[in-house]
Design brief:
The chain is of the alpha+beta class and about 160 residues long. Helices cover about 40% and strands about 15% of the residues. The longest helix has 25 residues.
């Protein structure tokens, strides 16, 4: 809104996968002021850091590490062994959620670079290769995706 004052209200914290009972910063709440002559909406909204995945305790970099293990041929259960704080069911749930998001992710990635010609049979693995091709310079393509499109990777 033109002329409105937006101020930071509070921080958003969530589970830290690296610590047993730890919290980590996930984002910030912002208030769009409508007091006085300001033309704001009077609501608060969340601004998430690109490293976090909204509504998930798994971070974007952990998700990418897991995706790379799958691309290297490991099974989900074997990949879960390397992710100590997470149960295998968490990774199975992430895989299912990622499958439901492919119809949104693939067209966005195609805006950056055409889909690669690959031999992967699994559409999730094809998408992971597309992430690598679309964001070749970054250490964490899911994080780069969220920054580039200003949208949550997992919805």
């Amino acid at each position: 809104m033109l002329g409105s004052i937006k101020r930071r209200s509070s921080f958003l914290f969530g589970k830290d996968p690296a610590q047993a009972n730890g919290q980590r910063l996930r984002g910030q709440r912002v208030f769009c002021s409508n007091r006085g002559r300001r033309g704001g909406c009077g609501r608060t909204f969340s601004v998430f850091l690109a490293e976090g995945l909204p509504r998930f305790s798994v971070t974007a970099s952990l998700l990418w590490q897991w995706m790379c293990l799958l691309l290297n041929g490991q099974t989900i259960y074997a990949a879960a062994a390397t992710f100590h704080p997470f149960a295998p069911e968490t990774l199975y749930h992430l895989r299912a959620r990622l499958r439901l998001r492919l119809d949104t992710l693939r067209p966005r990635l195609c805006r950056i670079v055409p889909a690669p010609q690959n031999v992967q049979a699994d559409p999730r693995l094809q998408t992971m290769e597309h992430f690598r091709l679309a964001f070749p310079r970054g250490d964490c393509p899911p994080q780069d995706f969220q920054i580039h499109f200003q949208a949550a990777l997992m919805g």
